[in-house]
Design a protein that fits this description.
alpha/beta; about 15% strand; 13 helices; 14 strands; Metallo-beta-lactamase, Chain A; about 400 residues
Length: about 400
């Protein structure tokens, strides 16, 4: 059942970027009868606030679509879906990755593990029987040798124990994918390799921003009101596969694979009333399959994440910098400009630059690089260039 009570012209299609950047991403795609939220990287409260500020009613949402499982794309997904009672569309690997992160796992210390192992061995000895008799047969010399070995082995185990305790402490900050993350789920500047990610290691230890706190408080309050509720429960889950199109109401959706450090990351093309909109963010480079999908678009949202020099000179550890710049990282200003200059067909009336890094980019640098690429192609001068923002919704694009 899709909404038909809004006073929009039958052929009106809208795209509103509610937030795009380091701390959360979410975009509304709407036709006269269908409204889809692409990613929910803000708290439910903030998402609804921004939707209303943009003239859209949250209660009119029909579905949530998820590009991938990183925190800056799913932070408010579960609470929003449950509050509105709407389905979530995502790939099965993305869903599994998110559920794994949301499901608490019992962790034990090395001391507890040793105690459990000792208890199991004792139980085994009792079951086998005759253990005491066998021990009595060991000579004094053999016993001394065994004790010496035990002392030496204990020293080795002690050293191993220290190391394993350190590793266990580190694993408490890790998800199932083994990627280190802060104990409080933060929104990440780059959102790499971390299902729910995300602040880069250089940011670990900083106070979480108000939006992150709001999302955490919402989840805690909901859990307190219904402690038996599974935090990974959703009203309905609809799986799709990259490359296979489907429909939500009167909007046709085509997901396509993007190269990013996540379980099964995708971008989207939306078509309704003859209007074609593409969203391609969180990709390490521009492969041919993505370039093909971005043709003939009326609106193109393209990542322009970082300035390479700012990233190289910035505070992140070198390992993080390598990941951001890798082929499963994020698109730089230069890479986005290269696509606009050589791979882009120029069909879009609007080009929106999104997912700008707060630590490794400046809006002016992203704009300069893109404008230079468009300026070199005279046929693209009519393209309207816009920059999505982190802290407020972008003016709706209406076609």
């Amino acid at each position: 059942m899709f909404h038909t009570d809004r006073a929009y012209a039958p052929d009106m299609v809208r795209m509103t970027v509610l937030a795009s950047g380091s701390r959360g991403n979410s975009t509304l795609i709407a036709s006269a009868t269908t409204r889809i939220l692409v990613d929910a990287g803000l708290s439910c409260r903030e998402l609804m606030k921004r939707m209303r500020a943009a003239g859209e009613e949250p209660e009119a949402l029909d579905a949530i679509l998820i590009t991938h499982e990183h925190q800056d794309h799913v932070q408010g997904m579960a609470v929003t879906a449950r509050k509105l009672g709407i389905p979530v569309y995502l790939t099965e690997p993305t869903h599994r990755a998110w559920v794994r992160w949301m499901t608490p796992r019992k962790r034990i210390t090395y001391k507890e593990w040793l105690e459990q192992r000792s208890a199991r061995r004792s139980a085994f000895s009792v079951q086998e029987g005759g253990g005491a008799g066998l021990r009595a047969q060991v000579s004094d010399n053999q016993g001394a040798g065994l004790r010496a070995q035990a002392t030496e082995g204990g020293a080795r185990r002690s050293a191993i124990g220290v190391q394993e305790e350190r590793e266990a402490g580190s694993r408490k900050l890790e998800g199932n994918d083994g990627v280190r993350r802060p104990a409080v789920a933060n929104g990440n500047d780059e959102g790499i390799g971390d299902p729910v990610s995300v602040r880069c290691s250089a940011d670990v230890g900083e106070e979480p921003d108000p939006e992150e706190k709001a999302a955490a408080e919402e989840a805690i309050a909901e859990a307190a009101s219904a402690p038996e509720k599974d935090p990974s429960s959703l009203p309905a889950v609809e799986y799709f596969r990259s490359g296979t199109g489907f429909r939500i109401g009167d909007i046709a959706v085509t997901p396509f694979t993007v190269p990013h450090d996540a379980a099964d990351p995708v971008g989207f093309v939306f078509e309704a009333e003859g209007v074609r909109i593409a969203i391609a963010t969180d990709l390490g480079y521009m492969p041919s399959n993505v370039s093909v999908q971005l043709r003939r678009c009326d609106v193109l949202m393209l990542e322009s994440n970082h300035d390479v020099e700012m990233l190289r000179d910035g505070p992140y550890p070198w390992s993080v910098k390598q990941r951001v710049m890798s082929r499963v990282g994020h698109l730089s200003n230069d890479a986005a400009a290269e696509f606009l200059a050589r791979g882009y067909d120029g069909a879009a009336a609007y080009v929106v630059l999104g997912h700008l890094s707060e630590n490794n980019n400046l809006p002016e640098l992203a704009r300069i690089a893109a404008e230079a690429a468009l300026r070199d192609r005279m046929s693209l001068l009519a393209n309207h260039l816009m920059l999505a923002e982190q802290d407020r919704p972008l003016e709706a694009i209406v076609l």
